[in-house]
Every structure is written in C-alpha cells, then in structure tokens.
Design goal:
This protein is mainly beta. The chain has helices spanning 2-18, 94-97; strands at 34-42, 49-53, 78-81, 83-92, 105-115, 120-126, 138-144, 153-159, 167-172, 185-188, 201-203, 209-214, 220-225, 248-254, 270-277. It has a 4-stranded mixed sheet, with no helix packed on it. Strands 11-8-14-15 form a 4-stranded mixed sheet, with no helix packed on it. Strands 10-9-12-13 form a 4-stranded antiparallel sheet, with no helix packed on it. The longest helix is centred in the N-terminal third of the chain and has 17 residues, at 2-18. The chain is globular.
C-alpha cells in the first residue's frame, strides 16, 4: 500500500512538472487558429445521427452525438482547428444496414472541407437516407456570414423542407396572425447549401413569429414563435431571443418525418429557431 502511494505521488509530481517551464512557470496552451461549426440534422427518414472528425481528435468537437431529426449537436457552435478537415456521419439503423436481426452502425456521409479560421459554419445534414429517394442525404456546409452587431434582432431563414416548393417567410406578431403584405423573405427555395438561405434582416426588438406560405400566397402552412430570450443582468448574461437586442437567430423550415421511419418528430412540416449569436455580455468576465 505504501509503495503504491509513493508511486502515485511521483506520477502526480511528474504530471505537474510537464505543465511547467524550466523556471517553474506555467505553460500556456498552444491553441491553433479555429473555425466554428455546428451540426443540424434535417434527414427525415432515419434515426439519430452522430458526426465524427476522423482526421484528428485535438481541437475537434466531440459533442455532435445522437442528434435527433430537427435537432442540433450539443453546444451549438464549437471550435474546430481550421484547414482541411475530414468528417463522417454515422447512424444506428437496421433498416439502412439490411441487418434486421441485429442493427449495425451505418455510415451516412464522408466529407472533406477546408474551414477558414474565424469563420462560422452550419453543417446541415439534408436529404433522404433511403435508396431511390431524391435528393439523397448529404452534409451541406453553409458559411454563416454573421451580421454586424447592432441593437436590433437579426434573423434569417433556411429552407430545408424536403417535398415543399419555394416558400415565402413572414415575420408576424403571433404564429396565428393572418398573413398580409410583403414577406420578410420571398421565394426561398429548398437549400442546396448556397441558395435557399436568406440574408440576415434586422427586425425591431419585440416578440414575433415566423410563418411559411407557398410563394405568392397568404395561406400559412406552418409557423413557430421565436424564443423570447432573457435580458441580461449583472449576475447573468443575456440569452438570445426576440425581446433581447443584439440577438442573431435563424429559422429553419423542416419537412415532416417520413411515415414508418425511425425519425421521431411530428407528421407535419415545422419551423425551428436556432441561436446564431448571443447578445453582448452583461457580466464581468
């Protein structure tokens, strides 16, 4: 027992020494240039998905695990070492593998992309997993050109609603407000990673909702209220939302889940709001 204790103390001392310079000072972490990425699952006919970086572990997000349909990987934007990076997406689905008696992990996507330091990206997994359905699933890498900081609320829309035509997106006080006038974002087509993504627009600080209608019509197809957010205090930083100036939000239109598939979601299309940037901090770092 005593020998084991001495060995443990020695190991701790060696570990501490490894984190110090020769003169006893602390060693600063060598953080490489980072891009910032988030993963969103818009595949309506399979079960939860997991994204893995297969080129290196260091400075690679490890939280994009078991992401449900219409969900986002834990933590939102995560730091990723910039440069050419290799990712794969996997699922656990016996229907895809063909092994009904015992499910195996199936690889869904395999992509290499060059990420630029300091820039933000949404990795939107869009398309159908089942063979023969179009468009086939793939990871769309969207460069999120976040708007300049301001005191209003910045919003944009992304059309990921498979099976839906182009839509107009309206900003209304409530999800049930009758549509009228011009949409906030007109004729938004299904995204391919470049088109189907509106530019950011600034709206007043007030509770509002997004409603989708077929282009050129005033009949609401589906809607969702934006999160209200929480104002900041000296004790807690603000949380992004419609009532908090400086918030940046994206409304994504999702399709219904495919009947009989493992995707757990409602049987109708919907809009889900995501926070792109939090308002300025109100606490002292």
């Amino acid at each position: 027992m005593r020998i084991a204790r001495i060995g443990l103390v020695g190991a701790l001392l060696l570990g501490a020494a490894a984190c110090q310079t020769e003169d006893g000072g602390a060693v600063s972490a060598n953080i490489p240039p980072l891009a910032f990425v988030r993963y969103i699952n818009a595949v309506p006919d399979t079960n939860n998905l997991t994204l893995r970086w297969v080129d290196q572990l260091d400075f690679s997000p490890q939280t994009f695990v078991n992401v449900a349909f219409r969900g986002m990987g834990q933590g939102g934007y995560q730091g990723l070492e910039a440069g050419s990076r290799h990712l794969r997406v996997f699922t656990h689905d016996p229907a895809l593998s063909g092994n009904v008696g015992g499910a195996v992990t199936a690889q869904m996507a395999d992509t290499t992309f060059t990420f630029v330091a300091g820039q933000y990206y949404t990795l939107l997994h869009l398309g159908y997993a089942r063979t023969g359905q179009t468009p086939a699933q793939r990871v769309l890498i969207i460069n999120d050109a976040l708007p300049a900081t301001n005191t209003l609320v910045s919003i944009r829309a992304i059309h990921a609603g498979l099976g839906l035509g182009a839509v107009d997106i309206f900003a209304t006080p409530l999800p049930t407000t009758a549509l009228a006038g011009a949409p906030a974002f007109a004729n938004v087509a299904l995204t391919n990673g470049t088109t189907g993504i509106s530019t950011y627009a600034n709206v007043p600080v007030a509770q509002f909702a997004a409603q989708a209608a077929a282009t050129g019509t005033l009949v609401s197809l589906f809607a969702a209220a934006a999160p209200a957010g929480v104002a900041g205090t000296t004790a807690a930083d603000p949380i992004a939302g419609a009532t908090v100036g400086g918030s940046v939000l994206t409304a994504i239109a999702f399709p219904a889940s495919v009947v009989g598939s493992p995707a757990a979601a409602s049987a109708t299309p919907s809009i889900v709001w995501f926070s792109d940037r939090q308002p300025a901090r109100t606490t002292t770092p």
